[in-house]
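Consider one such protein record:
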Amino acid sequence: MIKRIFDFSVTLILLFIVALPMVIITAAIHLTSRGPALHWSERVGKNNIIFKMPKFRTMCLDAPDLPTHLMKNAQDYMTPLGNILRLTSLDELPQFWSVLKGDMSLVGPRPALHNQDDLITLRTEKKIHKLTPGITGWAQINGRDEISILEKVALDEYYMQNQSFWLDMSILWRTLLKVVKKENISH
């Protein structure tokens, strides 16, 4: 319950800080590409319940519903602002909505796409599916998309077994540093 109160309170403060940049990003997306500014991705949440997670749209409307790192020609589907939004992680800002709703936490395993069956199966076997997914997590700061599914699940399991307020604070701080340094970011 304390984690939920922390998530909600911090997210309200962060939304106040990023409200103007989010409005500017929304306008820029509308000016540079066809379609909505937000992409609502079907993700696997706590207890393997599917929820809709918003992100600023970085791909064209006809892009395949796959993780970008698995696409052979991802750049062909990128919008004019897509690379910039991903490189700066600004595409993630709308996920604060999912934190306010309770579908996500600030820290937890990243929610799998609805069709990442291998990741979902391994997380379920390890009971990781019982955690609320996060905007960032232990696997995010230890390799993100550059690690295998097995490594990701092992890192998620470590987080599950060692959860604490201080680990979450460390993950948030290290995430901020990685975003500033633009480390391990797919684009």
